[in-house]
Amino acid sequence: MTTVLYPGSFDPVHNGHIELVETASHLFEEVVVAALVNPGKADCLFSLEERIEFMRECFAHLANVKTTTFDGLVVDLAHEVGADFIIKGLRAVSDFESELQMAQMNAAISGVQTLFLPTASRRSFLASRLIREVARLGGSVDSMVPDVVSRRLDERFGP
Ligand code: PNS
Questions:
Q1: Which domain holds residue 81?
Q2: How far apart are CA 107 and CA 103, in angstroms?
Q3: Is 132 part of the annotated catalytic residue set?
Q4: Is the CB of 114 under 6 A from ligand 1?
């Protein structure tokens, strides 16, 4: 059985993430999606608990997908859940440099390899950072996020 770990900030989860998890759930026997602390991102909108709540609802229809949170090294979580690989989505060339560097660092310190999956081009502009910014400033992101996130963004930033 091949288990893969899909780590990210997921602040919040959006339709690009969901597409990647659906693809991975077809390719691999087990997918663990984990909301992690990104030490480089101090300005989180949602707590880890809120992010996992959204993810649980989004992935409830996928029997081989589990969700969790973790505050530590992604490779430690990979060992804890028995992941064979880490998976990451690539939206554009701009993602590649930092993702490759993280993949190489993770392989160097643990031997765990990373597999990259491409995002569908119609969703390649989706980024949690931009979704937070647009929602905060009153723009509509309803077509880009699951309903549970859309509702919660309305509660935070709505009139
Ligand atoms: O969605 P993001 O913010 O691009 O995800 C980045 C994330 C959370 C996967 C990355 O910051 C991470 O792996 N954090 C855990 C700490 C860690 O293992 N750091 C070393 C990475 S080489």
A1: 3-157
A2: 6
A3: no
A4: no
